[in-house]
Amino acid sequence: MPEADPIVRRFEDIEPALAQLASTQRLLLHKLTQGNVIERPDRQIDKITDASRTSERMITEIAKRIAEIAVIRKHSDERLSALRAFVDDLARRNGKQ
Predict the structure, then answer these.
(1) How many angstroms separate the CA atoms of 44 and 46, rounded?
(2) Could you report the per-residue pLDDT of 10-38, keeping only the tens digit for each?
(3) Is the pTM for the entire model greater than 0.90?
(4) Quick check: 23 and 29 in contact, CB under 8 A?
(5) What angle do CA 22, 43, 40 make, to 5 degrees?
(6) What b/e string do you get for 53-87 counting C-beta neighbours within 10 Å, with b at 16 or more?
(7) Is 33:40 a contact under the CB 8 Å cutoff?
(8) Is the Cα torsion angle 29, 34, 38, 39 positive or negative in sign?
(9) Where are the domains of the chain?
(10) pLDDT tens-digit profile of 44-62?
(11) What's the CA dihedral at 21, 25, 27, 29 to 10 degrees?
């Protein structure tokens, strides 16, 4: 009986191990994706995109509120100045009597 080529023998020895490794890898990947341990990159990108849009909306809303507060503050400052002028005028008039 002729002796098998050593290279062929090595491939024959390695082939079952590679098949087992590939099978284990497929099973692990299936378990990970089904169990949501890891998510597909497209799902992660969708989540990041949604978070970005939400942040953008929140920033826009905050900017609007800050603008409203600035207008309210301007009116409050004007009213306070008018009140100070009135009190100063009243104090001057009462002080002259």
Answers:
(1) 5
(2) 777 888 888 888 888 888 877 777 765 56
(3) no
(4) no
(5) 10
(6) eeeeeeeeeeeeeeeeeeeeeeeeeeeeeeeeeee
(7) yes
(8) positive
(9) 1-38
(10) 788 889 899 999 989 999 9
(11) 180
Token pair for residue 24?
A: 């284990």
Q: What is the separation of C-alpha 26 from the centre of its chain, rounded to a whole number of angstroms?
A: 31
CA distance 51 to 69: 27
DSSP letter for 36, please: T
Name the token pair of 65.
Answer: 């509120």
Residue position matching structure tokens 């005028």: 89
Cα–Cα dist 20/24, whole Å: 6
- pLDDT for the residue 93: 87
